[in-house]
Amino acid sequence: MEQTLSSPPFRLTALSLLAALSLSGAVLAQETPVPVAASSGPVFSAPSAFSFDLLAERAATLARQPYVPTPVEHPEVLEKIDYDAHWRIRFRDAASVQVGDTSAQFFHLGTYFRQPVRIFTVAEGEAREVVYRPDYFEMPEDSPAHGLEENAGFAGFRLMRPDMKSDWISFLGAAYFRSDGALRQYGLSARALALNTGLSIPEEFPRFTEFYLEPGPDGATIVNALMDGPSVTGAYRMVMRDTPGKGQVMDISSRLFFRAPVERLGVAPLTSMFWYSESNRFQSADWRPEVHDTDGLMIHTGTGEHIWRPLNNPDRVVTSSYLDRGIKGFGLVQRDRDFDHYQDDGVFYDKRPAVWIEPVSDWGAGAVQLVEIPTDDEIYDNIVAFWNPETAPKAGDELRFDYRMHWVDKPPVDMPLAHTVATQVGNGGVPGQPRPKDAIKVVLDFAGPALEGLDPREGATPEISAPEGVEVVNPFIVRVVGTERWRLTFDLKARPETDTVDLRAYIAQDGVPLTETWLGQLHLAQIHRLR
Prior knowledge:
The chain is mainly β. The protein is about 5% helix and about 40% strand. Its main location: periplasm.
C-alpha cells in the first residue's frame, strides 16, 4: 500500500457540479424522429436496428472524430427553471413508458440540467425513440418551462416501483446515476467515469447522451448508454435488478474509446458527502452528533487483506492512493446504522446506502484512489473514490471494464475478521493528570465473532505501524464493559512540524489478525488547531 497527497485549490459542490455537468458533452445528431402514433400516452419514432455491439461501434466511430459540444438552447429560459421551479414540474403517470415489468418516467430540463438526452426503448433488436412532448408534464401556469420549444427534450429518467409512488434509480446530469439501496433512502451517487479528479487541471465530465432501455432476464431492466466527452467516448450496458429489502445489483459492462490522453482515469467512481462523525466532531457546531452519507472506504485487496479507511474532512484537498493488483472489491460504506448517532428524522443518514464495486474482469494493476475535499456543510459532495489503472490511457486506446455494483445496507463480502465500528480522536494523556500538548489519543472500537473469548493475557496484542519520527505511546486493548466490542487505544506523539500521519492498526492473536486493518490518516496540524 502506498499513499500520495495533492492539494489543488478547487471545491466540488452538489449543485455547481450538476450545473457544470449539464453544460458539458454533446447530443449526437441523428434524423429527426417521426411520430408513428398520437395518444395521451408516450409517442415513439420509427424503429431502427439496435444492439450493444452497434452502440459500441458508434462510440468507437465518435472517438475518431473531433468532439463537438452541443450549444445550450434558450439558456435565458433555462436559467429561470431553478431548483424550486424544476421540482414543481411533474411527469404524468399516464405518459410513463413500460419497459418489461418496469415503468420509466422522465425529468424535465432546468438550469442545472440544460442539455437534453435521447431516450429509446428496445424490443426484438429494434429501438424506438420516445418523442418529447410538453404535455407529458404537469406544469404550473407560471412555470418558465412554458417558454421552451415543443422539441426541448428530456434531462434524464427514473425507474418506478410498481406502486408508482417512488423510484429506485435515476439518471440525471452528465453520466451520474444513483439508487436508494436496501433501506430505500437516496444518498451517494455513482457515475460512469471520472477524469482528472483531484488534480490541478480542470476535471472533465463526459455525459450520457443517449439511453436505450430494454427488459432483461428474470425481471431485470437493461440500460444501454452512449457516453461522449472531449477526451473519451463509451458504451455502457447495465443490467439492473431491484430486490425489495435487499437493494439493487447492477452488472455493468463498459467499452471506452479515448480521443485524448487522460492523466488520471477513475473507473467505477463513487461520489459522497462526509462532514463530521465521532472522529472529528470538533469540526462542527451543528446540533446533530454526526452528518455524513458515508463514514469510510472499504477495500478487499487482491491478496485478501480487508481494509477500513475512515473518512476525513481535511483543510485542503487530499488524494490517497492504495496500490493493488487483482483487486477483489472496494466501496464507500455507511456502517453506522444507529439513528441516535445522527438524530436527523428528515434525511435519515442512518439509512443511506453503501455501494460496493466488485470487478468481474481482470483490472490488472492500479490503485484505489480516495479524494477528500474540505467542506463546512452537508450540501457539498466532497468525497470521491474510484479505481485508477496503473497505465494512463492515450489517444486511440480502447479499454474495457466489467464490474458488479451493489447498493446495499452492508457490502456482500465474506469477512471472518472483526470490523471497525468507531474511530475516535481526542486529547492525549491521562484524565486527572497534566495533558501533554503534543499528544493525540486514538481510540478504535472493533466488533465481530473473531473477538469472542479474546484474552489480552493470552497472546492478544495491538499491532500498530507508524512512520519514522512518530511515536506510538502506551498501546493497549480492552473489552468495552457491557458490550461485545474491543477497544484499541494509544497516544500519538510527533514533531511539531509533522502535518499528516498515516497509520495501520489491528488486533492480533499470536500474530494472526483478528480484525480488519484500520488505515487512519490523521492531519495533526488541523487537529491541534481545532481541538
